[in-house]
Every structure is written in C-alpha cells, then in structure tokens.
Design brief:
- There is one protein chain.
- The protein has 21 helices and 13 strands.
- It is α/β, with parallel strands linked by helices.
- It has 2 domains: 9-139 and 296-362, Periplasmic binding protein-like II (D-Maltodextrin-Binding Protein, domain 2, 3-Layer(aba) Sandwich), CATH 3.40.190.10; 143-294 and 372-408, Periplasmic binding protein-like II (D-Maltodextrin-Binding Protein, domain 2).
- The strands form 4 sheets. Strands 2-1-3-12-6 form a 5-stranded mixed β-sheet, with helices on both faces.
- α8 (148-154) crosses α9.
- The chain is globular, with a radius of gyration of 21 Å.
- It binds beta-D-galactopyranose.
- Beta-D-galactopyranose (GAL) is lined by residues 30-31, 36, 62-63, 86, 139, 245, 265, 298.
C-alpha cells in the first residue's frame, strides 16, 4: 500500500496548512495479512494528517524474515524513516551502536511515562535511562482460537480449555478436520511452545525458563509435561500444511481446522472475514488453563537521520502513534490492546474484552521478546520447527536440547 499524493493534492485534502518542512517518510513493518494491512492503514492515515506522507515499506514473510532486512538496512547505511520491531530486546545492538534516535525529550514533553500502561512497555523502550521507541500496542501470544463451526460439524461442544481441546481431537479428525492449525514458519511453533509453557507449566515455570534461563527447570518434570503437550500439539497439527500464520487462521475461519494457538493479532483476520467473537469463533486466553497474557507488542523505532526535515517528521509520527484517536482506530483493527489507560474501547469485541479484563486485574507476564535475546529465541524456534516436522524426535530428546539452549541463552 503506497500513499502517493502530490504536494498540491495533499494541501487541498488537508483541513489545515501543510507545515513547512513536511516530508515523505518511509516506514517499514511486517504487517502484510488482511487484518494487519487494515490496521497499519490507520497509522498511515494519522501520519498523513500531520501533513507529512507515509511511504509504506511492508516487508512480507513475518518477523523472522523482515527483521534481518530492516536491521541490515540500518547497519548498512540505508536507514528508513521509522520501523516496527517488537519492543523488548530486538534492538539492543542497534542502540549500542548509536544507530537509533533517542526520543526522551519528546517522551518527556508529551508525558509518556504517565500515560503508557503497563509501565513495562516504556521500560522495554528504555536503555540507560533513554527512551528509544514509541509503543503502539499490547499484543499477547497466549490464546487459543477455536472455530465454533468445526466443533458443531464434529458434534462435540466447543472446548473450554486445552485438555478438552485435546480430548476433542479424534472427533474433529473423524469429521475430516485438522484439529490444530499451525504454519510452518519457525516463530509459530516456537511461540506455541511459550504459550504451552505458560498454560501447562504456569507463569512461574515460564519465568524461570525464559527469564532466569534456568536449565535445571527446563530439563525437569514440570517442563516434561509441557513437552508432552507439545507432542500432542504436533500430532494434532500433522495435516496442517500451510506456511503463513494467517493461512492457518484461515483454516480456523473456514471451519477446516478446530483451532490455532496464536497471538491476538489473529483477531484482525476474523474481523476482516466478518466473523463475530463468541458467535463464530471462541478465544481462550491462557488456553483456558492459566488466564494470563504477556504484554509484549509492537513499537516504532527511529534511525538517526541527517536530514532535519525528516527528523522533524519522525517526531510527528511518534506523536501521532500515541494519539488517543490513532490508538483506538489502530488497535480495534489490529486485535491488540491500546498502550494508554485513558482510552475508551467501547467497541471492543468479546475477546478484546477478555484481554482488557485480564490486564485490569494485573494478570500479565513479560513477553518472550522482553525476556530473552532474539538469537536465543531463534535457536528455540529452529528446534521447535524440527520437532514439529520430525515425528521420530521424541519429546524427551527435544526437551534435552531445549534445556541445553536455555542453559546458554542470554
Ligand atoms: C508479531 C507482531 C504482531 C503480528 C505478528 C504476525 O511479531 O507483534 O503485530 O503482526 O507478528 O505478523
């Protein structure tokens, strides 16, 4: 999606005069599914309303593919005006190398510390007391998305938790359904493992493994239960022959699959397909086992640029991203929760309301991207895609390798 408007057309369309120095700014992100594209268009609209022009730099293939491209552009001297990353540890090296812009002055002027909730979001943008990113949402991974139609077709009730879901798998298979849809990209199976870690092992085990990098816990009996669940997951997903996460969501939307473990960005796809939460599909936070959600998400980072006009436009973009109106429009389409506590999300659907309620009672945990370096997470992702694709690899063998990775993780 590109927003090509001539300066004259832009001036005519704007209700106010275009500020001197208004400029084009290339913004990169990996939001290419239907729901994601609808959501990012809201950010572009908000930025264009400042008189500047959003030049869309979508990179397909998901975070694993897009992130290295974005990073190499910044390190290679061809920086974009702004880029999405997951807030957390993905930008540590870029910040250390002095390649990203310090937004502290703007953040102080606009009082971000008082309005961004939970506080951990801004902490994740902060290195040595300086703020380097503008958070735009809270996305949580810990959800099971279920097709009500698939269960109706199979003649079994929609499950209320992971155990019931596993028990329903034979009935789904008999009805010609794939019990669990999962795409082939490594981040999807690696993410599913973290979700199972919270749901089956509980938040403490999750924190010990991903936060404290405790190899003993990772090799122990609690995590063995998680690997037994992961073994069930891979058997249930044996016929799930898709790559992208949104193709897997589509199997659920169309009732070909029973469910998908995926972050709440899946909601954007249900919405674009015209499905209604609670009626057409059901969502189980924490897989119905431990009702907690992680408070990771997306944030925009701004490479240092020599051009003064573009640097000004970066500030206008950062401000627009946190604006209450942008927060409502964007998050309703993205399926994520706003980063401000003073937002009225009256139009939130059933699933977003569940997320907001969990947030309100403080049922939150840090995201994997906040706890562990992306290099270590990638090693786990690779192990997990191998586990899903290699039926002869036992859960015990996979757990042993997992514990070794955790032992050397940072
Ligand atoms: C995540 C990102 C989400 C969502 C997802 C799939 O990393 O935080 O916003 O877009 O990838 O593309």
């Amino acid at each position: 999606m590109r927003y090509r408007m001539t300066a004259l057309a832009a001036a005519v369309a704007m209700p106010f005069a275009v500020p001197a120095g208004a400029t084009d700014l290339e913004v990169t992100h990996w939001w290419t599914s239907g729901g994601e594209a609808a959501a990012v268009a809201e950010l572009a609209k908000a930025f264009d309303a400042t008189g500047n022009k959003w030049v869309d730099g979508a990179v397909a293939g998901g975070g694993n593919t897009a992130r290295p491209i974005m990073i190499s552009r910044i390190t290679g001297g061809d920086p974009m005006g702004a880029t999405q990353f997951n807030h957390g540890r993905q930008t540590e090296e870029l910040i250390q190398a002095g390649l990203l812009r310090d937004l502290t002055d703007l953040a102080n002027k606009e009082g971000w510390a008082n309005l961004v909730q939970p506080k951990s979001l801004l902490d994740s943008c902060t290195v040595d007391g300086k703020i380097y990113c503008a958070p735009v949402n809270i996305h949580s991974w810990e959800w099971l998305w279920l097709s009500n139609k698939a269960f109706e077709d199979a003649g079994v009730p929609v499950p209320k938790n992971w155990d019931e879901f596993v028990a329903a798998a034979p009935a789904l298979e008999k009805a010609g359904k794939i019990p669990l849809a999962i795409g082939g990209q490594p981040w999807q199976s690696g993410g599913a493992l973290r979700v199972l870690m919270v749901a089956i092992g509980g938040p403490d085990v999750y924190q010990k493994v991903y936060g404290d990098k405790d190899a003993e816990v990772a090799a122990g009996p609690e995590v063995a239960k998680v690997f037994a669940a992961a073994d069930n997951a891979r058997k249930m997903a044996a016929k799930s022959n898709v790559q992208d996460w949104n193709q897997a969501t589509n199997l659920v939307i169309t009732g070909q699959a029973g469910g998908q473990i995926m972050g709440d960005w899946a909601q954007g796809e249900f919405q674009v397909a015209g499905q209604v939460a609670g009626k057409d599909y059901t969502c189980l936070p924490g897989l119905g086992m431990h009702e907690v959600i992680s408070t990771g998400g997306d944030a925009f980072y701004f490479p240092k640029l020599a051009d003064e006009g573009k640097s000004k436009a970066q500030e206008a973009l950062a401000s627009a991203l946190l604006d209450p109106k942008t927060q409502v429009a964007f998050n309703l389409k993205k399926g994520s929760l706003p980063i401000r506590g003073d937002i009225d999300l009256g139009a939130a659907n059933d699933c977003m309301k569940k997320g907001l309620a969990i947030l309100a009672k403080g049922g939150t945990i840090p995201s994997g991207e906040q706890l562990m370096s992306q290099d270590s997470l990638n090693q786990i992702n690779d192990l997990f895609v191998e586990f899903f694709n290699t039926p002869s690899m036992t859960p015990e063998a996979a757990q042993k390798r997992f514990a070794e990775i955790v032992g050397t993780a940072d």
